[in-house]
Amino acid sequence: MKLNSSIANYVIGVMLAMALVVASVMAGDVVKTKDGKTFDGQITTRNADYLEIIVKYGSLETRIPIMMEDVESISHDGEVIYPAGQSDEAGKRQSDVIDVKGDATGAEAEDKAETATHAAMSTSPPTTPVQNASEVKKRVYVIPLEGMVGKYFRKDKLEEAIDAAKPYDPDVIVLLINSPGGLLTEIYKLRDYLQEVRDEYHIVVWIKSAISAAAMTSFNVREMYFMKEGHIGAATAFNGATGVALTGERLDEWVKDAREMFESAGWDPKIAQAMIVKDYWLTADIEILPNGEKRVTFHDDDSGQYVLSRPEENLVIDSVQAMQFNIANAVCDNEDELAKALNLDGWVEVSDSGRKIMMNWKNTLDRADREYPKLIQRMNAAGQIADPRASLGQQAQILREIIQWGKMMPEDVFAIFYSGGARVQDFERQLKLVRAQLANLGG
Fold first, then answer.
1. One domain for residues 335 and 195
2. Is 407 exposed, middle or buried (0-12, 13-18, 19+ CB in 10 A)?
3. Strand pairing partners for 307?
4. Domain span including residue 318
5. Which of 280, 278, 270, 281 is nearest to 327 (CA)?
6. Regarding predicted confidence, which is higher, 122 or 326?
7. What is the radius of gyration, based on Cα positions, of the chain?
8. Same domain, 142 and 128
9. SS3 content of the chain, % helix, strand, coil (to 5)
10. pLDDT at 60 (0 to 100)
């Protein structure tokens, strides 16, 4: 069986590091983790620190490593065997698992001690029986899209996350949106990509906060869910170079593009223009049809019964309005509520790859946010050193570090957010110059 490379490397590392592995072969094992995930399959390895469980999703078989510190409970054939103390039979099952190789020693003894500690400290409610993964009709894949659009929240990272989902064939891809907005140019990239994949996958957005560019991006998806605190809108467009709001032909062009974008996904284009331009009203009439369905008609003047926004306001829609005016399918504050709204048979994530890709990217940028200003300060200080050889030597080292950071991210991110428009090639040329100066000094 071919493993995901990151998982494979992790498993190999653990296997080489362990002096003793307590192995067991089980059928009907259910591992529930503290973050609410459930894995139903066959545990193949377990010790004090770590377990592996083979889970089947249809015809796909995946070996999943889980740290024991992240495990809430383990069940075998419906009986809880971890934490210990659930019942005499559960204790017996626990002993059977630990003592597969004989008397408990080393890692096995640590496993027993950890089991007792978890039992004493656990405040979690009893686990609820869940369906076998093979019986679950719909499976979820989550991609958190957070932070500034164009920096953290990007088309290339969204594409990477969706590509990582393909082997798992998820039934629903959830885009979890929490963003204050960002670059207008990135909206077009996200629009083109979402229009490409939204017919291939069942994609929904789950709104915590979607402002400006994040709002425009969200309306490229046909199905929306809101958290209770969720809100979306306020999409005034600015010139990135001057920081001044767009006007005239450029604004007209953007409004036209946004209207077409909304309409393409089945949303009323009047919503788009009310979010972007303060010149418009957005009002609505609500009609209950004979079949009980609600029909909402939007107006870009004051003729509607309900007022959503007036001139001199940029439209922002909260979760109550989203439900009232047929924008939200449901309001859901947690995964269980979203699972019910999506008619899922429980919340089962086929993989956390989407979460990891976005978290790794965020961690990279957060580190750059901390380190890059320090590098610039060091560069300035190095330029003040009286000894030319020492000054140039430090500058060369700092330039190498800046170049390394630049190569860890797309050119546009590095240029816009970290180097004031300079590219990696500019720093490489500067490093070449510094090295030439050092060579001229005989260094």
1. yes
2. exposed
3. 283
4. 136-351
5. 270
6. 326
7. 27
8. no
9. 45, 20, 35
10. 54
CA distance 439 to 434: 9
| Number of structural domains in the chain | 3
Amino acid at position 375, single letter: L
Closest CA to 431 of 385, 400, 387, 390: 400
Q: What is the pLDDT of residues 69-107, one digit of tens each?
A: 778 889 888 788 888 644 333 333 333 332 222 333 333
User: Looking at 78, 107, 132, which one is the last position of a domain?
Assistant: 132
Which of 17-26, 53-62, 70-79 is predicted with the least confidence, judged by mean pLDDT? 17-26
pLDDT at 442: 76
300 and 384 together in one domain = no
CB hemisphere CA count around 150 (13 angstroms): 18
pLDDT tens digits for 289-304? 999 999 999 999 999 9
Closest-CA residue to 146 (of 373, 420, 366, 315): 366
And the tokens for 176?
């979890």
Q: Which of 17, 33, 91 is nearest to 99 (CA)?
A: 91
Q: Indicate the residue type of 52.
A: E
Structure tokens at 282: 């957005």
For tokens 């978290």, the residue is: 359
CB 263 within 8 A of CB 246: no
The secondary structure of 158-175 as a DSSP string is HHHHHHHHGGG--SEEEE
CA 104/CA 126 separation, integer angstroms: 28
Do 195 and 339 lie in one domain? The reply is: yes
CA atoms of 260 and 266, how far apart (whole Å): 10
Residue 62 has pLDDT above 80, yes or no: no
Do 152 and 262 fall into the same domain? yes
Q: Spell out where 251-319 has E strands.
A: 282-288, 294-299, 306-309, 316-318
Distance CA 98, CA 100 (A): 6
Query: What is Dmax (Cα atoms) for the chain?
Result: 90
Query: What is the value of pTM for the model shown?
Result: 0.68
SS (H, E, C) 183-195: CHHHHHHHHHHHH
